[in-house]
Design brief:
Number of helices: 6
Strand order of the largest sheet: 1-2
Structural class: mainly alpha
Largest sheet: 2 strands, antiparallel
């Protein structure tokens, strides 16, 4: 920056100051103001300020009203920043001389209109039915996700069922003594074991109990 601007004493903090101050006053100008407006803190309000009692600050520090400040910031732009811009964009023309600030050549406050593209609405509780429908619609993804998970688990369990409809897991876990004589229940029945019929226990007639 020093070599481009031909200013050996180039200071980055002066550049930051010029950018912030210039942007601040130009931003206020877009709203039709030449000075800042503050509001008295009042914590009786939800937002913490009483907007019905504005405090207008002085405009003597506005760089587009104060001649001394205007000379400082305009000369910095002309002598330091503009040479840098000219080196980047060679088609820029030399800056003209700025007119002196006076009563006819300075910023003045103006009324500014704001275009609102939306309608303000007062928050109110919805009726019970309308609120329930809104919640169900909003939670549709969660409900469908839970349903899909349940169906997935049910499908896994169904794959492990035997052809007769009984669950292989439960049949194996419940195998044990089911009647007198310590008869075992299993998938394959051999001589000496009892068979289950019609939901009850029936002894094998060919086996002699001891």
């Amino acid at each position: 920056m020093r070599s481009v601007s031909n200013e050996p004493t180039f200071d980055i903090w002066k550049l930051i100051n010029w950018l912030v101050v210039s942007y601040y006053w130009l931003f206020l100008t877009d709203f039709g103001q030449v000075s800042a407006v503050g509001y008295i803190p009042d914590y009786n309000y939800l937002w913490g300020f009483d907007f019905s009692r504005p405090v207008n600050f002085t405009s003597e520090y506005n760089i587009f009203i104060n001649q001394t400040l205007f000379d400082i910031y305009s000369s910095y732009f002309r002598n330091t920043l503009y040479p840098v811009l000219s080196a980047i964009e060679t088609s820029l023309r030399p800056l003209p001389d700025f007119s002196t600030l006076d009563g006819n050549n300075q910023l003045k406050p103006v009324d500014t209109a704001f275009l609102r593209s939306y309608s303000c609405a007062e928050r109110r509780l919805k009726p019970a039915l309308e609120a329930a429908v809104s919640i169900l619609v909003a939670d549709y993804a969660l409900i469908i996700g839970g349903y899909t998970l349940v169906m997935f688990l049910a499908g896994i369990m169904q794959k492990h069922k035997f052809k007769d409809g009984s669950s292989g897991y439960f049949d194996e876990l419940t195998a044990g003594n089911i009647c007198e004589g310590c008869v075992k229940k299993g998938a394959g029945l051999t001589d000496g074991e009892r068979t289950l019929t019609n939901g009850g226990v029936q002894a094998d007639p060919d086996v002699n109990e001891t």
